[in-house]
Here is the input.
Amino acid sequence: MCSYIVEKTAVTGSAKAAGTWTPITDAVVSVDHPYHATLDHALIVDFVNAGRPVSERVALELSVTSARELVACMQAALDAFVEGS
Here is the structure.
């Protein structure tokens, strides 16, 4: 069953795909059936540039466990930066 869970946020940054860097303006996050990963459900993150075709997005499909571990790792890195700056 599809979850239809979708969240979107504006971001400021760059992403690299096919050897080329491009600005990104938005991140679209969902939990649903992946397109490519051999998982029943995945956390799917699409980084897009609002001014470019959606075919140029940078996409991630992670297992739920991997996604939770990545979020924890990112939070730990950010916390270390804030505390150490």
In short: The CA atoms of residues 25 and 49 lie 5 Å apart. The chain has one domain: 5-84. The beta strands are 5-17, 20-32, 42-48, 58-62.
